[in-house]
Amino acid sequence: MLAQSPLLCSCGQLHSNAEACPTLMRGLDLNGGTMLYAGTPPPGPAFAQPVTPTPMSSPTPVVPSLVGQEFGRFRVVRELGRGGMGTVFLAEHTLIQKRVAIKVLHAHLAQAPELVARFLSEARTLTLVQHENVVTLYDLDSRDGRPYLVMEYLEGDSLASFARGPMAPALVVDLMTQVCDALGAAHAHGIVHRDLKPANVFLVPSPSGKQRVKLLDFGIAKLLSRPAGEMTTEVGVLLGTPEFMAPEQCGDGIVDARSDLYAAGVLAYLLLTGQVPFYGRTAAEILVGHLQKEPVPPHELNPAVPEALSRVLLRALAKRPEHRFASAAELRTALEASLAPPPAPTAPPLTALLRGKGTQAPVELKGEWVGRSGLFFQLATPPPELLSDVALVLRLPGGELPCTAQVVRHVTAEQAQAWNMSPGFGVQLRDSSPAFQAQLAQLRSGTRAAPTATTAAIPTPEDAQAEAVLQGFRRRLAGDPYAVLELPRDATLEAVRTAAQRARGALELLKARPLSENQRAQVDRALERVAGALHTLGHVERRVEYDATLGNVEGIERCLAAGLTATMLEQCRRRFLAGNTGREGRAAVHRLSGDALASVGRLEEALAAYELAVRADPLDLEGLKRWRFLRARVRGSAAPR
């Protein structure tokens, strides 16, 4: 590294090394000219190069801290980090304490129109791309001549901090499929990110431990549908991070969505092997690697990488765009398929003997498994009566197994023709004891039963301590998702996640105890209900639609406070009204009545009419605003109730 030579920083000061200023913008193009990189340097070998300092009359003064100052209705709490374009702060709404991240353009860059335009371009890009794996933009404004973005606040780590060496292939594929989803959403609007790297991928941990990807920093994104020459890179200037730049970005080729897929391949390569495909002492060496060299297959650097996954990355890293994957969705599918287990060998056809009654001869049947203990048998003649018990001898790969089953379904010839299947009947095996299930699994796998006589398994007694815990859960499971998590209807999303984590932890502790079969089944069912409750209440859009069916306006308000945008709310409202016809009309009548009553000063009656409107159409934002405003006014002037 050439760290001792002075570096010319975009803030106007000289620094002794590349880490002295987080706003440093540095680099060198293939012809020796200056080029700019947006954001922080990537992991791996340093590529900052010394340049000859230009004369300066005096160093730029240090910018005073913005902590405690207000940007619109948000007050800055603390600084979160700095990049090449701006500083990011944590801020809170002055009234409802909603937390957001505010990105403010550096003061010394606000004087450059082209950099201001690039900063504003990021805002326009984020408004187009609405996806759960892309950071959400709430607002755009300017303060003291410095534009700033108001975005959702994310708690977690960047991928640059999270990845400390080679990672497990399953985790890498999980993260990269989410990155592909985010890129696909951008590409659908004609937007190419052009700076995909670990620092621009943020990970938000969920209560289950899974990492949720958020794609950041669209500062140099390119909108392909723009007219030629508008918001494009100047001739001879390269934008991006050298280690992650596609060959066409390094030269004079056309940059499109496949350039992002190349960067995704580099990112996955780094996560799997701990190093990028091409590196060097200078940016020029790295760019030459992208243009001329072939990468070492990832599985040769890390034997834990499956060869199928290695082949996917090598295709993503193809020099020519037409040799790569055609879309982010295609790359996503290939990543998932690379870890899929080999197809299981085709099981032999299942046959069974249906024992006849009295002198009737047994009937040989052809069938197939339906779930763990269900079977369907083909039979053209009238099947046994519905809900009757039948005696069967299952012919399995490991031997024959006599059993009793109950007839639970008939498929007539007419139904079979309509459903493109054979007529027959379905049965459910009667014996569900652990000993029978173990013998069934053994014979199905092709293992023959031991010739020694088997003794009946001694059932495990019920655990008293577990029973006390399960008794509380049985009461909770009888209710709705709020009851399952023991939460009030106005609980915050953070309270939902905490309650789900607490319930799941208590149930997982029970699984380590000597439970009876019945208790173990109850624990599994409780875990499914807790997961379902978290799925419904832990996501703002799913929760707001569920709260609408309950008429739970307080829960809807919580979702709005948690970041549900007006666009998202309107989409949820359309789905809600599609399944609840007539509500929109009733709400409009009540709202008009409220307007009329409020205009003549009959505020209590107007409030009651507005409340009826909200209960009928709880996702109507205009109705919610009127009801909340009048409620605050009435409660502020009348005695509390």
What does this structure look like?
The chain has 641 residues and is an alpha+beta fold. The chain folds into four domains: 112-139 and 149-338, Transferase(Phosphotransferase) domain 1 (Transferase(Phosphotransferase), domain 1); 350-444, predicted glycosyltransferase like domains (Thrombin, subunit H), CATH 2.40.10; 464-538, Helix Hairpins, CATH 1.10.287; 543-637, Serine Threonine Protein Phosphatase 5, Tetratricopeptide repeat (Alpha Horseshoe). 39% of the residues lie in helices and 16% in strands. It contains 21 helices and 19 strands. It has helices at residues 113-128, 159-162, 169-188, 247-250, 257-273, 283-292, 298-301, 307-316, 328-338, 413-418, 434-444, 464-477, 481-484, 493-510, 517-537, 540-550, 553-561, 566-578, 583-599, 603-616, 621-637; strands spanning 7-8, 14-15, 70-71, 74-82, 86-93, 99-105, 137-143, 146-152, 157-158, 191-192, 201-205, 211-215, 222-223, 350-354, 363-370, 374-378, 389-396, 399-411, 424-429. The strands form five sheets. Strands 3-4-5-6-8-7 form a six-stranded antiparallel sheet, covered by helices on one side. A six-stranded antiparallel barrel has the order 14-15-16-19-18-17. The longest helix is centred in the C-terminal third of the chain and has 21 residues, at 517-537.
